[in-house]
Amino acid sequence: MEEKxxxxxxxxxxxxxxxxxxFQAVAQGLKExxxxxxxxxxxxxxxxxxxxxxxxxxxxxxxxxxxxVPGMLFAxxxxxxxxxSVLNAYQVQNPELSISxxxxxxxxxxxxxxxxxxxxxxxxxxxxxxxxxxxxxVVVGRGASDPDANSNVSKITxxxxxxxxxxxxxxxxxxxxxxxxxxxxEHAARLGYKRIVVFPYFLFTGILVKRIFHxxxxxxxxxxxxxxxxxxxxxDHPLVLDTFAERVEEIRNGANxxxxxxxxxxxxxxxxxxxxxxxxxxxxxxxxxIGTGSSGAAERSSANGSSAVADDAHSHDxxxxxxxxxxxxxxxxxxxxxxxxxxxKTLEENSGKSGAE
Length: 357
Hints:
CATH architecture of the largest domain: 3-Layer(aba) Sandwich
Structural class: alpha/beta
Number of helices: 9
Shape: globular
Distance between the termini: 55 Å
Radius of gyration: 20 Å
Number of strands: 8
Strand order of the largest sheet: 2-1-3-4
């Protein structure tokens, strides 16, 4: 009899209940696309169930081969370190289980099409009073201490910009790196375009997406001559679900190739040379399953520059660690540009004025 496979969808987790519900809806959509597998899900932190509980549920159904897929966009710290650490620890404790790990969604033409449709929807809703040639697109990524993940957002920006024939485009980030949203939008506002479309390149809502739109409102109020348009994040777009399903099947068909050539933990990356070979470990055990709806302090921490945010996913056979976007009492490898004037310092300077923080 053929051995049954199970799918484990691994999310980051959030204190925002709406974000957790959206993640669960995507996991359910993936389950419907892959009826041949038992499917469960779990989170690294804050939300429940945690990843180990989802694995428990699969094991209780007799699953001994697990295909684990990260519910994140790009390869940075959380999926290079935290998720593999959790999965590896669980497998050590349950040696009868075999867990294989999928790559990140990454740069994928289906995801680009989904992103383009989100921007297109916003343009259609705004109307054609302003031409595309006079429209500037700002794509906002999550922001990470991993330059490879950050550069991927810039590539997404270019592909949407060129694909939709817009006048100009810029890239900004919600935390950790630079430029952050407010200085990025202020820069964009000086370029002379009549309309600025702000597109959060995120899978789900949450405090960070709400922060992006909060700063959009702040900058829009300063520039009434420019029309600011807010595009929706990716969420459960059918092409997103198709890509998740493809990542699961790649594990079994042998096409699960990871991008390790631009990994700062494997090769010397300009400005990040000291991070090659750092130890792989998870930093989320103390906030596993802590629950949604409580204080947002942990998700606000990208304002202080002590962290690195990651929408990421691929595993390595070497050991390394990471910083991330939460204030915890453990040590992080310092992000080399934490004091950049267009980076996290801008949030510190404005923290007294912002209700979104």
